[in-house]
Design a protein that fits this description.
Blueprint: E1 12-13, E2 20-21, E3 26-27, E4 30-31, H1 34-49, H2 62-75, H3 80-87, H4 92-95, H5 104-114, H6 125-130, H7 135-144, E5 154-155, E6 175-176, H8 182-201, H9 205-224
Antiparallel strand pairs: 1-2, 3-4, 5-6
């Protein structure tokens, strides 16, 4: 920066503000490319360290280096907002890929619900898709994911929200489910239809209505995750 302080550069127009600005990395009046600044320097570092393949190409790319940095931050206990800041992520969901969960089974379940591009359904799904879950919420879910499992999915209700006051979690705004629960959802759908038929034979119209409503809700959930209620 000291070397550049008195350099006779031309001004650039900022794309966002429209104001006149000076840039640090400029040569002969032109901006130095990100490729030259990062990829070229990283390839030189690889050659210096002997990290090259048979063709002499560095084995570490800028993209791989970025992922390694994110993983190392997560494994050393960095908070999610710190990882977001260092990597320039705009939402917690973008940084969740670096979250470390020791149990591989829990990790797989966690990623099917909270991982990028997860196929999910239920009222709680929109908060996951839109990235509106806070960093603290994701940290808690990461540490307590096993506790969120229900019969047909997961409840993303947080401790500070108090205990859940309803058993009808199919309509709960914190409920979310995935294709991993498709077979259980189909079984529950079948049970509700049988109960509706039984209630119909006993002339219990309100029970027929209740069981049919649950069956219809399950059908919508299955449709949202791309599954057929009949398993076809």
């Amino acid at each position: 920066m000291a070397l550049r302080a008195d350099a006779p550069d031309r001004w650039f127009t900022d794309e966002l503000t429209g104001g006149r600005v000076r840039h640090l990395f400029v040569v002969r009046g032109r901006l130095i490319s990100a490729y030259y600044l990062f990829e070229t320097a990283l390839q030189q570092a690889c050659r210096n360290a002997g990290l090259v393949d048979a063709s002499g190409r560095g084995t570490i790319s800028a993209h791989r280096f970025r992922h390694t940095l994110g993983t190392q931050l997560a494994e050393r206990g960095a908070k999610l907002d710190t990882i977001m800041s260092v990597l320039g992520h705009q939402s917690p969901g973008m940084s969740m890929v670096y979250a470390r969960i020791s149990d591989p089974e829990v990790l797989r379940d966690y990623q099917t619900v909270l991982g990028p591009g997860a196929l999910i359904a239920g009222p709680g799904a929109e908060a996951v898709r839109s990235g509106t879950l806070s960093a603290d919420a994701i940290d808690w879910l990461k540490a307590n994911f096993l506790k969120t499992e229900l019969e047909l999915g997961h409840c993303l209700r947080l401790p500070e929200e108090g205990p859940c006051e309803c058993d009808l979690y199919l309509a709960c705004p914190r409920f979310v489910t995935t294709p991993a629960y498709a077979s259980r959802l189909r079984e529950r759908h079948s049970v509700e239809l049988r109960l509706a038929d039984d209630a119909r034979s006993r002339d219990w119209p309100r029970e027929v209505e209740r069981h049919c409503a649950v069956a219809a809700r399950i059908e919508r959930l299955l449709a949202d995750i791309g599954e057929d209620p009949l398993g076809g």
